């Protein structure tokens, strides 16, 4: 019985996280997707200017230099 309780608690926590994400997306509003490379895509608020997006992308690239 205790095992089922833990399962329901985890399910509830997962559902809470999903609901929080949905609420956040509602607040952010429309988004645009920008592909950085074949494996990385960013989701930016549509209200973000092109210059702000480029700054964030450059900062990401500086922190995540490819291993060669």
Main-sheet strand order equals 1-2
| Tally of contiguous helical segments | 2
Number of separate domains: 1
Strand content: 5-15%
Give the number of DSSP strands. 2
pLDDT under 50 segments (min length 5)?
none
The helicity comes to 55-70%
N/C terminus separation = 52 Å
List the secondary-structure elements in sequence, H or E. HEEH
Kindly name the structural category: alpha+beta
What's the mean pLDDT score? 81
What is the topological layout?
Blueprint: H1 2-28, E1 31-35, E2 41-45, H2 50-63
Antiparallel strand pairs: 1-2
Report on the structure:
The protein has 2 helices and 2 strands; from the N terminus they run αββα. It has 68 residues and is an alpha+beta fold. The model has no long low-confidence stretch (mean pLDDT 81). Strand 1 and strand 2 form a beta hairpin. The chain has a two-stranded antiparallel ribbon. It has one domain.
Short description:
With 68 residues, the chain is of the alpha+beta class.
Task: Label this structure with key terms.
single chain; about 70 residues; alpha+beta; two-stranded antiparallel sheet; 2 helices
């Amino acid at each position: 019985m205790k095992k089922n309780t833990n399962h329901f608690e985890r399910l509830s926590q997962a559902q809470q996280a999903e609901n929080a994400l949905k609420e956040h997306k509602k607040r952010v509003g429309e988004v645009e997707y920008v592909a950085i490379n074949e494996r990385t895509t960013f989701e930016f608020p549509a209200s973000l200017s092109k210059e702000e997006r480029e700054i964030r992308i450059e900062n990401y690239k500086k922190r995540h230099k490819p291993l060669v």
